[in-house]
Amino acid sequence: MKTTIRKAKVEDAPKLAELMNLAGEGIPAYLWERMADPGEEVMAFGIRRVAGTESGFSYTNAHVAECDGVIAGMLLGYRIPDPYEIGPLDEIPAVVRPLVEMEALVPGSWYVNAVATDSAHRGQGVGRILMEEAERLAAEARAATLSLIVAEQNAAALQLYEKLGYQIQARRPIVQFPRCPHTGDWILMIKETVPSS
């Protein structure tokens, strides 16, 4: 089955929101619940947010992997600003503070914010193809490094990233939230890019 990569489109927002929440270990839905209008369903707000162009979670920062015209996976990534301005930490939701702190350690890197494979397409190499696309995009953006953050208990993802040459750079404790699937630490990993010619 041939897998192709393309830039995400606004009409992909429903699938992107689902996959972003999966990749984000439930943190996106936890935050969307607090940001949604009264009575608005969490995923409806998430879709609205992804369909916009203002946040890092916008479809404009995403690429999708398609198998036979069906979205099999998603990559959300972009270059982290350099310098990276955090702003007051007490204004950042506690659950994402450790993530923001680690993002600030890798200014100018090409950040793999989220990568996820649909359950129907797991074990078919979709994640690896998306990570190769991240490397291509990082080189195109002339970023010297790629960066990502993963939960230490997500053993399968951690193993894949190590196989792909990512190395542990820093760690911060996970701040628990309702339905949080992990304890332990978030791990920041980086990989040097091969510049495009």
From TrEMBL:
Protein keywords: Acyltransferase, Transferase
Q: Does Acyltransferase appear among the keywords? A: yes
> What InterPro entries does this protein map onto?
Acyl_CoA_acyltransferase, Bact_Acetyltransf, GNAT_dom
Classify the source by domain of life.
Bacteria
Entry keyword annotation includes Acyltransferase: yes
Domain N-acetyltransferase, chain residue ranges per copy: 3-194
Q: What is this protein called?
A: GNAT family N-acetyltransferase
